[in-house]
Amino acid sequence: MLLRQIFLVHILLISPANTFQTPNSSHPDPDSIAMEVLRHIDLSRRRSLSEGKTQQQCLTGNPMDDCWLCSGTDWRSDRQRLADCGIGFGRDALGGKGGQIYLVTDSSDSDPVNPVPGTLRHAVIQEEPLWIVFSADMTIRLAEELLVNSFKTLDGRGAEVHIAGGACITLQYVSNVIIHNLHIHDCVPAGNANVRSSPTHVGFRTRSDGDGISIFGGRKIWVDHCALSNCADGLIDAIMGSTAITISNNYFSRHNEVMLLGHSDDYSPDAGMQVTIAFNRFGEKLVQRMPRCRLGYFHIVNNDFTEWAMYAIGGSGNPTVNSQGNRYIAPPDPNAKEVTKRVDTNEGDWKGWNWRTEGDVMVNGAFFIPSGEGMATMFSKASSISPKSVALIDQLTLNAGVRGGRRDNGEQSSVNGGTMGGGNMATDGGGGAKKGYLGMMFAGGSPSTPSGFVLLLYVLIGLFFSLLFMHQL
Prior knowledge:
CATH class: Mainly Beta
Strand order of the largest sheet: 1-2-5-8-13-16-20-24-27-30
Shape: globular
Number of domains: 1
CATH architecture: 3 Solenoid
Low-confidence stretches: 1-23, 376-386, 411-459, 468-473
CATH superfamily: Single-stranded right-handed beta-helix, Pectin lyase-like
Number of helices: 8
Oligomer: single chain
Mean pLDDT: 81
CATH topology: Pectate Lyase C-like
Structural class: alpha/beta
Strand content: 25-35%
Number of strands: 33
């Protein structure tokens, strides 16, 4: 994330309703939270194998999805159950639980100072807990950053909602926010303008970076089942002492610097940053930062890394990286096979950092360089329950991205179960096992159309067998 030259102005001008000194929300034993995540996965998997046939059709082994999809009630009449389904460091994010349902009926954003009732901006600035849903499919082009107040859930289930083509989402000095089932893409910088952040406060905003989701001094945040791509800066950036964050079941694609977690190597409050990254699909045309970490503790578990151009996981400032049960599919480039990158740091300095790989599968020459106590017993608690086999990655990430429609650009998933619809399959990359021509499986994406040479080969083969058949007659 680009440094804001006058970010102190932001601190002085934020809404009084949102102003608080971020308490130390870091868990004193992060390994125990990593172990708890693995326990949830294990229990969900066991449940999916032991339930009756009808229930098995719903269960996927993904503990978050199984919690709200397979509870025995229709999620449409029990939306707020979702708030009970988080795991990892962001597990306590309440969102708008207990609050009223706010129905967004107007996709406009014509006046960021005096937002119209029924718009998304009007919903998110309110001070009370709200569960925000959408009346229909819509694309919201924000004129300025969407400043979300504490105790809000943005729930896109039941509609196809795009926040795209303008400014995007900012969580600044707020807590208890859930962002679920939204398309967030093509975000651009905004600012140098007045923006309302609560019913009683309007403040001047300096120039933003153009992140998809910017978390600035936030805590208890859960980003789940979103599709994020092609923004001016990061897709998700968390800085300035943010912590207690879970990023799960998302589909990332078509972007350079995907995720920055940490403001700078010498910003000591980020030492308390704790982030869980689980069940995500890192898809086509990604370059780097999946994530790029500083100082804190990062549990990266059961994700599918299908493409990168430079590296997948980077870091500086001695972060702790606990990588468990992920699939890393290296690109064809022989110089980009390494999963890990210690950024601007000599080996003599980083060899003591705690970076561990456990149960990860490396495909196409991928390799992960562990270091420090990660090579010995640092994660003994987290390792007391093994991460699920990478053989289950396809199932755990089956519905990564937006459910109930296009999961990203071209693929579909079902909101009522674990199967995927047809959709228009993306043809410009992407991972996962896909059937290509003649039924062959491609680990890194299926070709869009056969080349001229292949077509000629098919014709010659067909002609050969035709002549052979006529000869036998």
